[in-house]
Design brief:
Largest sheet: 8 strands, antiparallel
Strand content: 15-25%
Oligomer: single chain
Radius of gyration: 30 Å
Bound molecules: phosphoenolpyruvate, magnesium ion
């Protein structure tokens, strides 16, 4: 017997859920029903009941009938992103409505332009205990006509509804319980899609799980109940469960939120993997704070990976300082001397480390010299305090200011300040931080927080993972850990303080969990996972030394981007076939005076030697914009990214350019070096540089012209590629700048980070233009921007005709492995399809689908 009729909420074309271009709806993850493509913008109630969810964006509405059946109407796909634009709610949550009552008005034009699709699912959610019948056949439908009927599946207790069965009164009291609290960082909070994911996960466990926020609690199995919580970005959400598998249920729900975040990113709303600078790393996901540990703690993934080891704590020694100083002149001099010593020491460490460490130390040197900090310290000294006391209080004052900020990335700079504080205090005490601090075998470092210099002081060979109760995924210590390839979880909460020193723990920094008391089989399983990962990595590394060809035999070169000689050694070790981009400006970025020809020659020659017979593409200094040089102060500009940058700066300072070119031309063996010009906008710039090179070659006595390439970093250069390529030997696409200039979005803007995506179809069209020009001229077109290391981008770039990728050294093996699994024809088909898509999210989805069909799920 029918228990409910669902009526059309508006006029339109009635179809099936399969036609909704969203796997959540088409896959019936939310429930069953039909979909309508609306032709009017007035949504009326499809049945009588209470409005249980109507988000502020008014793009969806849920009604609960008197029998407890929930009906959801979700206007279009991806309409939550409109943030309410074009929608006007006519009722409020909690209102009782009759079938046919007006609920939402929406502007069809506005919504159609902003949505992925207007196809509107009308669903019963969930379908537990219910069956749908008399579904309307596809065709035109008018508002108020019956779409389908709901019948109950008879049970002993009568008709089941979506309300979860109450717990039996005699349920065992010793049931396990678990809970977590986290901050929801999803852009649109717990809207329909994440709610569906969570409900699905909750249903997979026997435990009764619930979510609480704003003082309300929802059954975690009910999508509508979750949505009705009204959880927005930044809200605190508690997850509780009771029952035999409660800890697993809670861990799965935490992982569900992280999965939703990844989906959000893949759709182009989070961090875009392909557009990050080379030193970028995993973007922060959620920030769980465990309330109760039940053997599994949830954390934020800072560096993915798996490890099994012994929990190990290292004590941070508090550095004692006397409050009062002897004589203010002496205290000031001591502070100055301590800062000089720290500076020298940090610069020494930077010179021996990789690019990541150098960048972090550069930030620390900024703090060391910070005028506000130093002024505050000097004021305290003048007031009679000791140098140490004054330095500490000046740093702590800056820390308080940072901690009050809402931006978590800024708050994460607190650790850097603490690091600089301790360096100076140790220097004042005449000490330096000890190095190679011993650790037990297979140590999992467990701490509340960790400073960058504390990490680099540890014995790396024995450290297998890092687990912090606090910390942030974008902190410098996390970036360092990523560079050192150490799995790391942060935000694990105070539960980690209960872990006994020496206890065996499992760190699953792929899933974001720390198992604090794992059973023997789990340990065995995790060890096997670590082992197979190591073997796979060793195999990939071994294969990386072999020349790279796609599955159909097409040759594709994989080069590395370098900033110094250490990177060059790493590139060779990782199988790079050459250097596709030497960012020469980084070699001399901290100098007060311009490097001489001899200094430059020595630096370039060292790198060439480290590369052996492999080619070295040396880019002329790309100065200006986001890369200022102290020894070349440029006039203040309103918009430096559009001002004196790259080749424009070089041509404006011909002496500096000539010095660099002379040094580059003298590197041996000569044939291995090629030159690359940054920020080209027309052929005249190339001809100007070529003219100087010709002169210098004649002067030095070089017979063979050096190969010259132009970077394609501006839309102008891409569109004129067929003309430019006549003047050069090769092109290299700098996707980082090309994306910034195509989309008119600053590549360093934190709020636009999720949108400056090099897989935007507009950027792909420019890549296609450049690659096409290369193919027509029979010359190489490479990509050396960050997108070259993005696995979703690789088939697209190859499909567009790119035959050389230059990536960070560590990415070379994986990129080579991926290329070996691809057929150029498949890549070409994919690329052609993607050029006509409307958003980077759609491009990413298509590329992901293709890789999945090849079994490349990584
Ligand atoms: C680019 O813009 O993509 C590029 C490789 O140059 P840089 O990142 O050094 O500006
Ligand atoms: Mg660039």
């Amino acid at each position: 017997m029918s228990i409910l009729q669902i009526l059309a909420p508006f006029d339109g074309w009635c179809g099936t859920l399969d036609e909704v271009p969203d796997p959540v709806f088409a896959g019936r993850m939310l429930g069953d029903g039909v979909a309508i493509d609306p032709t009017t913008g007035i949504l009326v109630a499809p049945c009588a009941g209470e409005i249980v969810a109507l988000p502020a964006s008014a793009h969806a509405v849920s009604i609960r009938t008197a029998r407890g059946i929930d009906v959801l109407v979700h206007i279009g796909v991806d309409t939550v992103q409109l943030g309410g634009r074009g929608f006007d709610a006519r009722v409020r949550p909690g209102a009782s409505v009759r079938a046919g009552d007006e609920l939402i008005r929406f502007d069809l034009d506005v919504v159609a332009r902003g949505a992925k699709s207007l196809m509107t699912p009308i669903l019963v959610t969930p379908m537990d205990g219910l069956r749908l019948q008399q579904r309307r056949a596809p065709g035109l439908v008018s508002s108020g006509e019956v779409l389908f009927e709901i019948v109950g599946i008879a049970t002993a207790a009568g008709i089941e509804t979506s309300t979860p069965p109450p717990r039996a009164a005699n349920a065992p009291k010793e049931e396990a319980a678990a809970a977590h609290t986290l901050i929801v960082t999803l852009r649109h909070g717990l809207h329909a899609r994440p709610a569906a994911l969570l409900a699905q996960r909750a249903k997979a466990f026997g435990a009764q799980a619930s979510l609480s926020a704003h003082g309300r609690t929802a059954n975690a199995r009910s999508v509508v109940a979750i949505m009705a919580l009204g959880v927005r970005q930044g809200d605190e959400l508690s997850i509780q469960a009771s029952g035999a598998d409660a800890p697993q249920s809670v861990a799965s729900l935490v992982a569900g939120i992280q999965e939703a975040l990844r989906m959000e990113s893949a759709a182009g709303h989070g961090a875009a993997a392909g557009t990050a600078p080379d030193s970028s790393k995993t973007a922060p996901t959620a920030a769980p704070r465990p309330l109760a540990a039940a053997g599994v703690l949830g954390g934020v993934i800072a560096v993915p990976g798996i490890a099994v080891g012994r929990a190990t704590r290292i004590e941070r020694r508090e550095i004692a300082v006397a409050e009062h100083g002897a004589d203010s002149g002496r205290e000031r001099a001591e502070l100055e001397q301590a800062r000089i010593n720290v500076r020298m020491r940090l610069e020494r460490v930077a010179a021996t480390g990789g690019a990541t460490r150098r960048e972090i130390i550069a930030a620390h040197l900024e703090f060391l010299d910070d005028p506000q900090v130093n002024e505050a310290a000097h004021e305290s000294i003048a007031a009679g305090k000791s140098a140490g006391f004054a330095w500490r209080s000046a740093i702590r004052r800056s820390i308080s200011a940072l901690q009050a900020l809402e931006d978590s990335r800024l708050r994460e700079r607190v650790d850097d300040l603490l690091d600089v504080e301790s360096h100076v205090l140790l220097a004042l005490a005449g000490e330096a931080r000890p190095m190679n601090i011993p650790l037990p075998e297979r140590a999992v470092l467990v701490a509340d927080d960790l400073l960058p210099s504390e990490l680099t002081a540890l014995d790396r060979a024995r450290l297998v993972a890092i687990c912090l109760s606090g910390g942030g995924a974008t902190s410098h210590v996390a970036i360092l850990a990523a560079a050192m390839d150490i799995p790391m979880l942060v935000g694990l909460g105070s539960g980690i303080r209960d872990i006994a020193d020496g206890a065996t723990v499992i760190v699953d920094a792929d899933a974001g969990t720390l198992q604090t008391a794992p059973a023997a089989p789990a340990i065995e399983q995790a060890r096997a996972a670590v082992e197979s990962r190591l073997m796979r990595r060793a195999k990939t590394l071994a294969e990386a030394q072999i020349e790279c060809r796609a599955l159909d035999g097409t040759r594709v070169e994989v080069f590395a981007n370098l900033g110094n000689v250490t990177d060059a050694a790493a590139a060779v070790a990782h199988g790079a076939e050459g250097c596709g981009l030497l960012r020469t400006e980084f070699l001399f970025i901290d100098r007060e005076t311009a490097p001489t020809e001899a200094e430059q020659l020595a630096a370039y020659q060292d790198i060439a030697a480290a590369l052996g017979p492999r080619p070295l593409i040396l880019r002329l200094m790309d100065v200006g914009g986001d890369k200022p040089l102290r020894y070349l102060p440029l006039p203040a500009e309103d918009n430096p990214a559009l001002g004196l940058r790259g080749i424009r700066t070089a041509l404006a300072h011909p002496d500096l350019m000539r010095t660099q070119l002379r040094a580059a031309l003298r590197v041996r063996p000569a044939g291995n070096v090629r030159l690359l010009i940054p920020m080209i906008t027309d052929a005249a710039e190339i001809l100007a540089v070529r003219g100087v090179i010709d002169e210098l070659e004649a002067e030095i006595g070089i017979a063979d012209r050096v190969e010259l390439g132009a970077m394609i970093e501006t839309p102008a250069a891409a569109l004129m590629a067929s003309g430019l390529i006549r003047e050069v030997d090769f092109l290299s696409i700098g996707s980082n700048d090309l994306t910034q200039y195509t989309l008119a979005m600053d590549r360093g803007h934190p709020e636009l980070a999720g949108r400056t995506d090099a897989l935007h179809p507009a950027v792909l069209k420019l890549v296609a233009a450049a690659a096409g020009a290369g193919a027509a001229a029979g010359k190489m077109v490479a990509v050396c921007g960050g997108v070259a290391a993005d696995r979703l981008a690789v088939p697209l770039l190859l499909g567009l005709g790119v035959r050389e990728l230059s990536v960070v050294p560590a990415a070379v093996p994986a990129i080579k492995r991926q290329i070996r699994s691809l057929r150029i024809n498949d890549c070409r088909e994919l690329a052609l399809r993607c050029l006509d898509l409307a958003s980077p999210g759609e491009v990413r989805a298509q590329a992901a689908e293709m890789l999945e069909s090849l079994g490349d799920m990584q």
